[in-house]
Write a structure and sequence with these properties.
single chain, alpha+beta
């Protein structure tokens, strides 16, 4: 059975911690606490439905602003000393250029049967096989 690791005291948190939330409807928030040299971090799961975790969260400076920002942003940098919050860009999200390229590929693949026929013929051509043998092979299929 798993044991519940206690959350660090808000006064013991470093100058910058990160909060992550996948779905605003879910009550869980991931807290990432970097070590002193910022080469590694400890990860905690804060369950806002759990009374101890909700009380811990409310001890943080400007907890209400942090909670509001976590409903809109999936990644938030937070300073426990001042309560300052800042949204962090999602590095895993596709860029505008990637979305545009995927959309162009999708529209090109679906709207141009001429290209599809051309490329399907090009793929069926086997080097070193005569046209007669190729045409006979396609008749047998």
């Amino acid at each position: 059975m798993a044991t519940r690791v206690p959350l660090p005291h808000p006064r013991e948190l470093p100058d910058l911690v990160l909060f992550h939330r996948d779905d605003p409807a879910e009550p869980t928030v991931v807290l990432q606490v970097p070590n002193a040299d910022r080469t590694d971090s400890e990860t905690y799961v804060v369950d806002l439905d759990h009374s101890d975790h909700a009380a811990w969260f409310d001890l943080l400076p400007h907890a209400r602003a942090l909670r509001d920002l976590l409903t809109m942003a999936p990644h938030v940098a937070y300073c426990p000393r001042s309560g300052h919050t800042s949204e962090i860009a999602d590095l895993d999200a596709p860029t505008l250029a990637a979305l545009t390229l995927a959309d162009a590929r999708q529209s090109a693949a679906g709207s141009s049967p001429v290209f599809e026929r051309f490329f399907s013929r090009r793929q069926s051509v086997v080097p070193g096989v005569s046209n007669l043998r190729r045409s006979l092979g396609s008749k047998l299929r």
